[in-house]
Amino acid sequence: MNLSNNTVLLTGGASGIGLALAVRFLQAGSQVIVIGRRADKLAEAQQQHPGLITRECDVADAAARTELVRWATAEYPGLNVLVNNAGIQHRVQLAEDADWEERRQEIVINVEAPIHLAMLLIPHLRQQATPAIINVTSGLSFAPAAFVPIYSATKAALHSFTLSLRHQLKPTGISVLEIVPPAVNTDLGGPGLHTFGANVDEFADSVMARLAAGEEEVGFGTSEKSRLASRSELDEMFRAMNNR
């Protein structure tokens, strides 16, 4: 994938992995539109990186997703890359937690939104010279963490969808790529929960270089091991991760 001369629409880009990816596209010479739910975090990101274009949008809302695509394609007709990065993670005890609406939001943001945005943008992307859809999944797509059961399931679903989408879009010329993060030191799930994770800049530098080299699915550290593991190795990873 050529990282330069693109117009990129990137969800969940005001902080963490999303911002790290956005900055690297920007530094490579692409125009980057960062989407987020919080105006204050978007303003902070733009202040730190003035070249970013920001847009407030709650991708949990279907009507907002439709309006986002209408606006983006009208204002930036050269839009050729969608990065589905927005996601939320909650630690859930399924036998004790009865708050379905909060659980449903995790499913909507992590699975429904990227599928819907991809479908909305496919007609536009087919008209572009070098179109791509990049889905950000997780090493937990392959070996789930039982303490984040819904998050793990949603990322497994997005990985599965990515494989099918790549297969279906082969005749269209739209590249479908997947970034598979391990635990990264960000505030996903809440401040202080991922301090043991990989450095976000080292992660972003690695995966972007590998996308630029032409790889379709890239991990880093533990997620690279899990995405390439056998079933017996994944079973052992599951036991090790969930028997702490």
Protein architecture, described:
This protein has 8 helices and 7 strands; from the N terminus they run E-H-E-H-E-H-E-H-E-H-E-H-E-H-H. With 244 residues, the protein is an alpha/beta fold. It has a single domain, classed as NAD(P)-binding Rossmann-like Domain (Rossmann fold). It has a 7-stranded parallel sheet with strand order 3-2-1-4-5-6-7, with helices on both faces. The radius of gyration is 17 Å and the shape is globular. The model has no long low-confidence stretch (mean pLDDT 95).
Secondary structure layout:
Layout: E1 7-11, H1 16-27, E2 31-36, H2 39-48, E3 53-56, H3 62-75, E4 81-84, H4 100-125, E5 132-136, H5 149-169, E6 175-180, H6 200-212, E7 217-219, H7 222-228, H8 231-242
Parallel strand pairs: 1-2, 1-4, 2-3, 4-5, 5-6, 6-7
Helix pairs in contact: 1-6, 3-4, 4-5
Q: In brief, what are we looking at here?
A:
47% of the residues lie in helices and 14% in strands.
Characteristic terms for this protein:
244 residues, alpha/beta, Rossmann fold, 7 strands
